[in-house]
Structure of Putative septation protein SpoVG:
Amino acid sequence: MKITDVRVRKITEDGKMKAIISITFDDAFVVHDIKVIEGQEGLFVAMPSRKMTDGEFRDIAHPIKQEMRSIIEEAVLKEYEKVLSEQN
């Protein structure tokens, strides 16, 4: 499975959430609402999630293997940085 498109849907400067991203796999499957978050150790990628009735958040979609998580994070952060640099 290959990432064939990464789109930055929204960039924000306020708060810890910095961007909302959509990624497409094999030109056939898209995942929306992936977030770029500024944490204590730098930027990280959060998968789309839903708030449960008990107040906790649960991922709607997420990679099972660390290798795939790394591939997604690299592609998302690369596109985010590219869009930021184009805006400046």
Summary: Residues 3-86 form a domain with the Arylsulfatase, C-terminal domain fold (CATH 3.30.1120.40).
